[in-house]
Amino acid sequence: MSETPSSSYSVNHPNSSESEQSLSTRHFNVTEPVVAKRICFYKSGDPQFNGIKMVVNSRSYKTFDALLDSLSKRVPLPFGVRNISTPRGRHSITNLEDLEDGKSYICSHQRKMKPINLEQASKKPLPWQISRPVSARRRAVQLARQHEDGFGHRESRITTPKKMLVFKNGDVRHRRTIVLGKKNTQTFEAFLDYMSELMQYPVAKLYTTDGRKVPNLQALILCSGAVVAAGREPFKPSNYESLGYLRPAKLLGIGNRVYPKANAKSESEKSKKWNVSVFTSDVPSAGTSSKVYIALYGDRGSSGPIFLDGEKGKLFQRGNEDIFTVNTRNVGHLYKIRVGHTNTGNSPAWHCKEVQLLNLFSGEQFSFPAHRWLAEDQAGGEVSVELPVLYQGQPILPVTVYKVHVTTGDLWNAATEADVYISVYGERGDTGSRQLLRSQKSKKFLKGQTDIFSVEAVHLGCLYKIVIGHNGLGSGNGWFLEKVVIKDPVTDLDYTFLCHRWLDQGQDDGSIARELPVTDKTLSKGRKDFCITLQFYNRLTHGFICLYPDSRVDALGDKKNKYGLFDVNVKRRNRCIFSSHEMPSLALALVSGRVTGKVGSGACCELRVHLQPDGCAILESASYPGHTVAFSRQGKVADERSGYAGLSKDFVVHVKGVFHHGAIILLNTSLCQALSLRPDGSCSGAGQQQQESYWKVHKIGSGLCMFESVKKPRMYLKIKDDQCDGTGTGDEYCHFKIENNLETGSVSLESVRNKGIYVGLLPDGQTKPVVNTGERNIFFYPQVIKFGREKPMGTSAALKQEKKEFRESPFQPGKAQEPEPQRPSTPPPSKEMRNPQGGECPLPSDDEWKVSILTGNAGTEASVALWIYGDRGLTGPITLGKDNRKQMFFPRQEDEFQVKMNNIGNIYKIRIELDGLPNDQPEWNLRRVILQHLKSKKTVNFPANTWLSKNRDDREFLCELPVVEAGKPIYPIVLYHVYVHTGDLEQAGTDSAVYLCIYGKRGDSGLRLLQKTCVPVTFQRGMVSVFEVEAVSLGKLQKVLLRCEASTKSQHWYCDKVIVREAENNSEYVFNCERWLPFMSQGIILSEIELYPQGKIYCNFMKVRTVISNPFPLKKSGQILHCKYQS
């Protein structure tokens, strides 16, 4: 069947764009006639497509492939025009000579062609007939006529637009929202083609969410609101049914909306038009002969690859700017692009300088500097690059180099010589298809071999699947893939994807590509041992979200409201349950679009966390996407009755415990920069978020901290003499008050010594002492690398508690005292002050003491740190220093200091330590320490006559001294023998520094470095290392804390157990460990662990130390207890 060709034809090539009249009158060479054929091309299965009328001759199209490429740009098919056939599909056209003048043909992207009624398709409706309403009588006539045709059956037509959600078969994450209307429901076959374009894969069948097949339009219209799109594979059950929010009346915020027009589109269906400007660098051989493509990624999905086509040979040449206009689906807020090429042609290498985008609807402009080669023989061998969106000149997401470990199975003929490709999928999109080109091995994919590749991409967040396969080319292309492990350097997580199957056309199911989900064990490892407590601040209501015992929720709480604290239970990826810290059984939940409290951890309690570019978070229901936690201006829960105007759903997240003692943090200044210490001791806010920007927190009091560089120990952040740098020594110039900024989630650092002076940043990033003028140059955004402890480990065994809390294990020197029900909160920092040499002294307060230290025959220039222990707590560390260190601790000189400390009860011991060592082997002869209460004149004596030195009698740089009364110490000094057993595992040993702190009923020993005089300690596999710890008697031991400071994985240490023996009373305590140190817990490296002893009942009891900074008792979790009774 053919149609009478229309009189209006167009020629696609510029050299042959003459009108029909000129073609008929032009004189051609008689010996070489050019035959022009007037042909009309239609789209397979789409009677509404009016046809493309073209003039085809040997000048306009040199080859048949050129014609296919031209038709692919004009006929909308999911995978371009790949087949041309006669109208009934009986004959396939394979070359230009087979085309006949005046005939019509059908274009398809596959071999199978769907016939159409050419007579109906060729009749183009008049403009005023397109939206003309159809009467019932006219509609009946049309259906009757259509039923008489031989080209299909009677189909139901939709009269009122209907919103519907379409899922990919087996993957609930891949979904699209559509509106069924007249245009896309002409025939069922046309709708399947429309879905193929939208879903970006061939759709051959539709199913309901419970697995029933949808055979025609009538069944589609009667569906409840969601369907599953599948290819030729069978239906795959998944969690489709729980998404029952699809009816417009149930969607939060649009419950009262109507659709006034039949052609109304949902927001997700709106297309976007972009101007794309591509700049090629002006360097030799920068141009490319390949086809260049671009892909846009936003929070609503991706555009897919869009080829930037034009006149061949003139695009992407050296120094050129090429401008294109492209249409995409609505991808939402843009966060990255991918630009690349097909690596074809004579000179495929390309040096891309920059890509610029202009949203023609909103006017937004984006610039993506590249300045790199995209070529297999250049740099990393990549032919594509991902570029994040820049915000104020900085990328909103980091660019990460993933390490991909591919293990080939240990079977015969398991190796392959084919080209292998991988695509990695995460929370923030995918990497696109990448060829695994450069392995660290000389030959790739051999039997039993693990190859390591690098894949650079904008950080994807939590990974959940990969697609890996090969092209099936080459001899012996079949491949047995064992597994793939991807290492994320940002979170230090390993993602494992198990396969253990053939990728071979002649083996297994014949597939050469496989989709592999992440192994659940990879994501959940260590999460049971770790807990994070946080608060959600609402900028609109200026309050925190609070969950009350009666399940009420509002956003009106203040920072100290105990009902505003939530413990985080991470389920998978960004899905969490936020349980009340005060009532652990109650959690935030979204029920019918309203936020409330629910008992348990059901599906309604699972919330998906979406982080925004401004640092805020949106909490969305994991079961009902579109339902979010939202509040009105009055702080009440949003619902249909209160309306949806002026709602707020963005929350600033405040994590508790960021500034705990010993924590390792980043003080971020932007999305990808942080405060860093430079080699010359200066500080800059433009540093990379890497180890040189890590700071260790030393908590010296409530809200007061010092910050020590991790890379350069003993260098502290300080403000002194109108300078702000990292050359501090730990004195009071290094003390900073932490001010929380609720509106931004940031903190400011105010100098304690210089009130009103903050750590600020100049425009070039240099640090400078500044006053608070309301500008953002004093804002830092803390990020925890490793959580610390609420109490300073090694200095205090007293937990920070509220006044209402009872003491768990009070110290009992001398006469035992009853624990007091009300205990003072943690004392403020002890501030060292030198006694004035003249003038009147003010009357002493109840918390002021005088410290007198008598030096013996040898003095020291080092600073001295002091801890004071009492039966109600302790104070310390107190830095005893003067303005001029060289005038301190002279031989036979007594130095006096004045300190402040809250009531810690009856003092029973002190610990004194040399700090800030000026040389390699200092020594100090300490004769005596006296503490005197200035008001009551009560005196406490600590005779010493000891050396703090490593050159004398196996001594250390610290010592503990008990109180001496009537010439006798109230507690003896005990020598504890410590036996550390290293496990008998491969690479179990380490040469890293290992620390130990012993806890008993009378405090702790302090954190001690396990070392021997003049002998470097190495913990070797299967060996037992013996050490001695001298301390004032701790009483019955309760636990030990073990820390291993390993900087690389090769230095990690496997500890089997620790045995502590006390020779005086012939007691022995066994602390089983059986664990690697450091270890990973929820993306955070934990280098220390608490171990509990065995007794008459042998207990293997271990608790990972994850104390959260809040004033309320924690529910103890993550503990494992195995008991075996002693016979």
What do these coordinates show?
- The chain has 1127 residues and is mainly beta.
- Helices cover 5% and strands 41% of the residues.
- The protein is built from 7 helices and 76 strands.
- The strands form 19 sheets. Strands 31, 32, 33, 34, 35, 38, 39 and 40 form an 8-stranded antiparallel sheet that branches. Strands 65, 66, 67, 69, 74, 75 and 76 form a 7-stranded antiparallel sheet that branches. The protein has a 6-stranded antiparallel sheet with strand order 49-48-45-44-41-52, with no helix packed on it.
- The longest helix has 13 residues, at 136-148.
- It is elongated, with a radius of gyration of 37 Å.
- It starts with 19 loop residues before the first helix and ends with a strand.
- The model is unreliable at 1-32, 126-137, 147-155, 242-269, 521-530, 792-843 and 1096-1127 (pLDDT under 50).
What is the global morphology? elongated
Largest β sheet strand count, sense and barrel closure = 8 strands, antiparallel
Gyration radius over CA: 37 Å
Structural class: mainly beta
Unreliable stretches, pLDDT < 50, 5 or more residues?
1-32, 126-137, 147-155, 242-269, 521-530, 792-843, 1096-1127
What is the arithmetic mean of pLDDT? 77
Q: Give the terminus-to-terminus CA distance.
A: 97 Å
- Count the E strands: 76
- Summed up, the helix count is 7
Strand content: 35-45%
Task: List descriptors.
single chain; 1127 residues; mainly beta; eight-stranded antiparallel β-sheet; seven-stranded antiparallel β-sheet; 5% helix; elongated; disordered N terminus; disordered C terminus; Oxygen-regulated protein 1
